[in-house]
Automatic annotation (TrEMBL):
Domain of life: Bacteria
Enzyme class, spelled out: isomerase
Protein name stated in the entry: Diaminopimelate epimerase
Keywords: Isomerase
Gene name tied to this protein: dapF
EC identifiers of the protein: 5.1.1.7
Amino acid sequence: MEFSKGHGTENDFVILPDPDARLDLDAPRIAALCDRRRGLGADGLLRVARAGALVAAGVLDALPEGTAADDWFMDYRNADGSIAEMCGNGVRVFAHYLTAHGLENRSEFVVGSRAGGKPVVVHESGPVVGEVTVDMGVVRTLGESTATLDGRVYPGLGIDVGNPHLACVDPHLTDTALAALDLSAPGFDPGFFPHGVNIEFLTPISSGVVHMRVHERGVGETRSCGTGTVAAAAAALRFDGATDGAVRVQIPGGAVQVCIENGRAWLRGPSVLVATGTIDDDWWSAQA
Ligand SMILES: N[C@@H](CCC[C@H](N)C(=O)O)C(=O)O
C-alpha cells in the first residue's frame, strides 16, 4: 500500500491515498501506524478519498456542508486513532499533496472535512515544498474556561474552529518562559469540553506576533496545530480588545499567518512532502 509522509510546520502526517475509501481504518491500526517506534510515526493520518466514496462506504453519514461528492475529502485521524473534525496544518499538506501528485490540477478548490468544505489556494506546489492558504471559516467563541499546568491556573477562551480549543493568553509569558513549560498533561474542565479539547498557551501580541505551544487532543504536545493557531490569534486579538486583524503565530515548528475578518479566518503557511513509500501488506493485516 502506497503512503506519503508530509508536515506543516512540523505537525506531521502519514498520507494514505484511498480514492474509493476501501481501507479499513480502525483505531488500533492507525495508532500503530502513527507510533514512532512500532510504525511510521506521525501526529495524525490523512486519508485521501472522494467525499462521495466515504458516504457510500459508510465512513460519513452524509456529505458535510459545502462538500460535493466529487471533492477530495481529508479523512483526518489523530495519532491515537480518534477522529477529529478538522486539521488546519493537515488541509495545507493535503492540498499540496493533491496538486504535487497530479490528483488536482486547479490551484483553487475545496477540500472536504468533517467541519465542512474548506476552500484552499495553493500558491506553490513543488515536489517537496508548498505554500497554501485555507479559508478556515467561522471562528466561534464558546466562552471562558481554564487550563491547569503544574498546579497553576491559566484563564482561557474556548473557541470552536470546527474542532474545540482552549486558548490561554498569559500576559506574563515571554517566549523563553513559554519554552520552559511542561505541556505533557494540562488539565481542563471536562464539563465545558465534554469531547476533549486542544489547549494552546501563548504570549500576547507584540509587533503582530504571538508565540504559542499546544497540547493536542488525541496526540499530546505537537510542534504546531493549524486550527490552534487560528484559535490563538482570535484569543490574542480579543485580549487586545480587537476582533479582526492579522497575526503571525510562531510555534516550535515554524510560523504561520492568520487573518481574521468579520469572524472568518484564513490560515496561510508552508507544507513539506518528505517521502513516499510502501507499507508492507503483511504488517498492515497484522494490525487488524
Ligand atoms: N493538528 C491539527 C489538529 C488535529 C486535530 C486535533 N488534535 C483534534 O483532536 O481536534 C491542526 O493542525 O489543526
